[in-house]
């Protein structure tokens, strides 16, 4: 590899393997709307998308990470290094950094795609990080002690001889390597779906919002609750829950004293008095869910909501955009809306909506 190869200007974004076309479509459309057109480059099931643009720094500012749906992480690509000699990967990385304006990074993250092809690179990424970190500190590219307030340097292994160098801003990126929060399944959780709501609260709400919007004694509803994974998360956050489902709930939820189980259709039921929260993970057509969720916010039945939209097999970005537009139109009031395909999601996206703030 030529040490003087110029860095390429673009965004590098992680995503769920298989959803590269959706992320590519999202980035392309939003870049065009920002008058910063470029082109997406990816491969199916690779777990990432590169978006090449003449002014990627401006594009990164125009496309904040918090507004992206199918990206787990957003990075500004610095260099694409191919044909690296496996016997000495550090030298070409340092040479590529020397071509950039001098800066000091607060952390080094060595990553690999979360895909079938990328997972065998995990061991290499771990060991190489231990070798590269002291070399970067000696050359003045990395702080002596990790500093989470400074930009991060990302070294991405796409193959044993193919490395992408990138950077991220802590305030405009996910705070976890690969954009994946490390959550563990609790022994008391009724189902693995609990991880989806736990991740949604962690990802779609800020620390300040979680403290302010999830307070002990608040009242909530869980539509399509059985066997109770999302109800369990709400109870753990101190909420009283009306769990609506014709199916059974786990007994320990009923024993908590915070859960009322109503055997009813979640699409037909409505509360007698306004609630603080409503959550919904029902398997239904996404447009139907979007319309029903809009009704809840429009009628004032809840102040905050988290719900999933199960996507079709084709044209998933188009369906996502249509459903979110439909939801906001039919809500007929100003809303704060955030959406993301979470790590624990599958063929779906998760939406947070709030009528109490804008």
From TrEMBL:
Its EC number is 2.1.1.186. It catalyses: cytidine(2498) in 23S rRNA + S-adenosyl-L-methionine = 2'-O-methylcytidine(2498) in 23S rRNA + S-adenosyl-L-homocysteine + H(+). Gene3D superfamilies: 3.30.2300.20, 3.30.70.2810, Vaccinia Virus protein VP39. Belongs to the class I-like SAM-binding methyltransferase superfamily. RNA methyltransferase RlmE family. RlmM subfamily. It comes from Agrilutibacter niabensis. This is Ribosomal RNA large subunit methyltransferase M. Residues 10-75 form the RlmM ferredoxin-like domain. Residues 88-168 form the Ribosomal RNA large subunit methyltransferase M THUMP-like domain. One of its GO terms (biological process) is methylation. The active site is at residue 310. Keywords: Cytoplasm, Methyltransferase, rRNA processing, S-adenosyl-L-methionine, Transferase. It is found in: Cytoplasm.
């Amino acid at each position: 590899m030529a040490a003087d190869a110029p860095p390429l200007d673009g965004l590098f974004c992680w995503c769920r393997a298989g959803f590269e076309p959706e992320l590519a479509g999202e980035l392309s459309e939003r870049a065009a709307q920002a008058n910063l057109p470029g082109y997406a480059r990816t491969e199916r099931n690779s777990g990432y998308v590169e978006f090449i643009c003449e002014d990627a720094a401006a594009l990164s500012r125009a496309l904040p990470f918090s507004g992206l749906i199918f990206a787990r992480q957003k990075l500004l690509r610095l260099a694409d290094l191919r044909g690296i000699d496996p016997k000495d990967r550090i030298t070409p990385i340092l040479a590529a950094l020397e071509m950039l304006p001098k800066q000091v990074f607060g952390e080094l993250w060595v990553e690999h795609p979360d895909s079938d092809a990328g997972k065998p690179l995990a061991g290499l990424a771990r060991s190489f990080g231990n070798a590269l970190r002291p070399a970067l500190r000696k050359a003045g590219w990395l702080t002596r002690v990790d500093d989470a307030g400074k930009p991060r340097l990302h070294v991405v292994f796409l193959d044993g001889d193919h490395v992408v160098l990138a950077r991220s801003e802590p305030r405009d990126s996910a705070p976890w390597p690969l954009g994946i929060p490390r959550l563990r399944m609790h022994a008391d959780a009724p189902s693995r779906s609990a991880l989806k709501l736990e991740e949604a609260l962690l990802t779609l709400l800020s620390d300040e919002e979680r403290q302010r919007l999830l307070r002990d004694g608040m009242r909530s509803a869980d539509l399509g609750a059985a066997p109770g994974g999302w109800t369990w998360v709400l109870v753990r956050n101190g909420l009283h829950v009306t769990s609506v489902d014709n199916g059974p709930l786990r007994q320990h939820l009923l024993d908590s004293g915070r859960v009322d189980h109503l055997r009813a259709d979640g699409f037909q039921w409505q509360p007698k008095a306004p609630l603080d929260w409503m959550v919904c993970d029902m398997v239904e057509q996404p447009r139907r869910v979007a319309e029903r969720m809009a009704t809840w916010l429009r009628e004032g039945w809840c102040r905050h909501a988290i719900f999933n939209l199960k996507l079709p097999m084709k044209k998933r970005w188009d369906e996502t955009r249509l459903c979110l537009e439909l939801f906001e139109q039919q809500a007929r009031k100003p809303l704060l809306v955030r959406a993301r395909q979470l790590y624990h999601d599958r063929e779906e996206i998760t939406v947070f909506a709030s009528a109490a703030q804008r």
